[in-house]
Specification:
- By secondary structure, this protein is an alpha+beta fold.
- It is 19% helix and 26% strand.
- The protein has 13 helices and 33 strands.
- The strands form seven sheets. Strands 24, 25, 26, 27, 28, 29, 30, 31, 32 and 33 form a ten-stranded antiparallel sheet that branches.
- Strand 28 and strand 29 form a beta hairpin.
- Helix 6 crosses helix 10, helix 7 packs parallel to helix 9 and helix 11 packs antiparallel against helix 12.
- It is globular and about 85 Å long.
- The chain starts with 10 loop residues before the first helix and ends with a strand.
Length: 665
């Protein structure tokens, strides 16, 4: 696979269209005025950098670390082909997906089909599916669309692919400004999967995305049955192959090695099983026992053809805090945004499906085999994803080290597989380049191949030397106290030169820069790199930097259980603690809010105590954030009460599992 990552060289695009406040543009436009950008004309920047306000929270599209699909580069590569791109429809199969044509899900649809409803109504005989039954027709589907419904999971999956771009709403789908539509297909169970695959293939669909499936034994029926459910799915996949349709399938979220999760684990040549990486580029599972990471979930092994972003995913969704579901007003519920933190191979698969759709839009005659090869080989290779594990063929779900001492018993055969067969995660520009080559074409920017493009990527550190907590950075940017320095560290290459803009009119040119913002406020920092050997340039996404001047409460929570799950140390960024005293001089504590830990993590903490030693006094303790820490909450009896040091304005609260120390600002 391709080991070099690329990015849109049109720095002008980045700076003109990025969704940040107008007052933050001074430093960025200064880069343009300095003559650093001279790529595409301004009009060619239209629709490449969306104005969707949470675009840069979609780390799988673009993020400052460079661990992403480089989707903006892919959009830019397609820009010169805009007049020749063909419309593409992606079939999305899900147990819960909205079907009605014309409803605004913030992505465009073509008429779908409730396959499950047709099965229940016996409009066709499931046994005839094997014989290419033609009784599932578009007319039947349109006559049997259900009333407006709550589409749940399938809505979010479809949004990853094709959420409307550049419409000032939350996010943008993988396909960006290009004409990719969704055909929603609905139905529970393996029979519906088989029927949906056949129906989509017969409608001329080239890309079928399914974030749904089951373990192999769920497909099996009594052995004397003439046709099993698994047979139906496998035969449907064969039929789809003859029609040139690729099936992109989520691999499952059981954290299992070599698990059979159909249809993703089918060996048919038109099936692509997709595993998840997290925002650090690691496989989203503790496969080697070195310790779990945030939002681990993915299956992996011989059925994982390729990996794609699958944690901290945003997409279109309903927000019941803003709207109560009201069927007739489904068209009002559009692109309200998933809570940052959604995860699963369900969202990795549509990343791959959307990129596949862009390749088909550019090269509609590409074969399903060539398309699959482009997706597998068009990756950013990593050492981890290319790691090899061994297993005995009679127990394929048990991983073993690959060494000369590893043996199988009872005549079993020792086999090996990579964590992910592609050895990397999907890289959109490389996929387009390989698809073009398969069709005898070329596609590039400024006449250079994809592998030659520079990548502006950097890390950020506080003055205590800790790297900024990445999950929090993706959601909220960087928060720093006024007077504290920030260290910006670029990923360096011998031929690169650097231009930093800190968003306040200040610039710098070293690979590593320490900077202290002189005033509180909100800024947007950005890096531009130039490869001096080619003259090619690249701009990073902008990083939001919030500089605050309020001296916040300092809080330390020590987990006395020895597990260390709840050790928290940092500054209160919202809310506050109050120290209350009764007539007898006894103290209690009440308050809480969002704590920013020393590496920038944001955690919700609250604490409420009674006055000590009164009526068997109790304290109610919360130290949790469900996305970061396991919850620990409840009524806990006092052990040592509240200790207050008036000279330092410090209070310490001891409870059985914790010690809370709070310094009031």
């Amino acid at each position: 696979g391709t080991k070099h990552k690329t990015h849109n060289t049109t720095i002008e695009n980045m700076m003109m269209k990025a969704p940040f406040p107008k007052r933050a543009l001074g430093g960025l436009t200064g880069l343009m005025m300095a003559g650093l950008v001279a790529a595409l004309p301004a009009e060619d920047a239209d629709n490449l950098i969306p104005n969707d306000p949470e675009f840069y929270q979609q780390w799988g599209h673009e993020q400052i670390s460079g661990i992403d699909t480089d989707i903006i580069t892919a959009w830019a590569m397609l820009k010169p082909l805009a007049d020749t791109l063909v419309p593409v429809t992606v079939a999305v199969f899900d147990a819960d997906i909205g079907l009605n044509s014309g409803r605004e899900f913030d992505y465009s649809t073509v008429p779908g089909c409730d396959i499950g409803k047709l099965l229940k109504q016996n409009i066709f005989d499931i046994g005839k599916i094997v014989n290419q039954n033609k009784e599932i027709t578009e007319e039947n589907c349109l006559q049997n669309l259900p009333a407006d419904q709550f589409p749940f999971h399938g809505l979010a999956v479809s949004g990853v692919i094709a959420a409307s771009s550049n419409n000032h709403r939350k996010i943008s789908g993988v396909v960006g400004p290009y004409d990719i539509k969704i055909m929603p297909l609905k139905g529970p169970g393996s029979k519906a999967i088989a029927a949906a695959i056949r129906y989509a293939a017969d409608q001329g669909i080239r890309i079928f995305s399914i974030s749904y499936g089951a373990l192999r034994h769920y497909y099996d029926v009594p052995q004397d049955a003439p046709v099993t459910d698994l047979d139906l799915v496998q035969d449907a996949l064969d039929h789809a192959y003859t029609k040139g349709m690729l099936v992109v399938a989520s691999l499952g979220n059981n954290e299992k090695f070599n698990e059979d999760h159909y249809p993703a684990s089918s060996t048919k040549p038109n099936v692509l099983g997709v595993a998840s990486i997290n925002h650090r580029g690691h496989l989203a599972v503790d496969w080697n026992g070195n310790g779990a990471e945030f939002q681990d979930h993915t299956n992996y092994g011989r059925h994982a053809a390729v990996a794609a972003p699958g944690t901290l995913i945003q997409s279109v969704w309903f927000d019941n805090g803003l709207f109560a579901y009201d069927g007739p007003h489904l068209d009002l519920l559009r692109d309200l945004g998933l809570t940052v933190g959604d995860l699963g191979t369900s969202f990795a698969a549509p990343y791959v499906a959307g990129i596949a759709a862009l390749a088909v839009a550019a090269y509609p005659d590409i074969s399903v085999d060539a398309l699959r090869d482009a997706l597998i080989n068009g990756v950013t290779a990593t050492e981890e994803l290319g790691q090899t594990l061994c297993y005995c063929n009679v127990k394929p779900t048990i991983s073993l080290p690959c060494s000369s001492s590893t043996k199988c018993t009872d005549g079993a055969e020792l086999q090996e597989t990579k964590l992910v067969q592609a050895g990397g995660y999907i890289h959109a520009p490389s996929v387009l380049e390989l698809a073009a080559q398969a069709e005898g074409e070329t596609i590039d920017l400024n006449g250079f191949p994809v592998s030659s493009y520079p990548k502006a990527a950097f890390s950020v550190y506080f003055d205590n030397g800790l790297e900024v907590h990445t999950e929090t950075r993706i959601e909220n940017g960087l928060e720093v106290e006024l007077g504290k320095s920030v260290t910006f560290v670029a990923e360096t290459q011998p031929s690169y030169s650097y231009q930093w803009s800190f968003g306040d009119g200040t610039f710098a040119t070293e690979g590593t820069e320490d900077y202290t913002y002189p005033e509180a406020g909100e800024y947007w920092a950005q890096l531009v790199v130039t490869d001096d050997s080619t003259g090619l340039k690249d701009a990073s996404p902008p990083l939001k930097v919030t500089v605050y001047n309020k001296r916040p409460d300092y809080i330390s929570i020590v987990d006395k259980t020895g597990r260390g799950l709840y050790n928290v140390e940092g500054y209160l960024r919202s809310g506050g603690f109050r120290i209350l005293k009764d007539w007898w001089g006894r103290h209690r504590v009440k308050g809480g809010g969002i704590v920013r830990t020393l590496d920038g993590k944001r955690i919700n903490v609250s604490l409420k105590t009674s006055y000590p030693h009164i009526f068997g006094a109790i304290t109610k303790v919360y130290a949790l954030d469900s996305r970061v820490l396991p919850p620990k909450a409840g009524i806990i009896p006092f052990s040592a009460g509240v200790q207050f040091n008036e000279s330092t304005n410090t209070i310490t609260v001891n409870v059985p599992d914790f010690t809370f120390t709070i310094v009031n600002g």
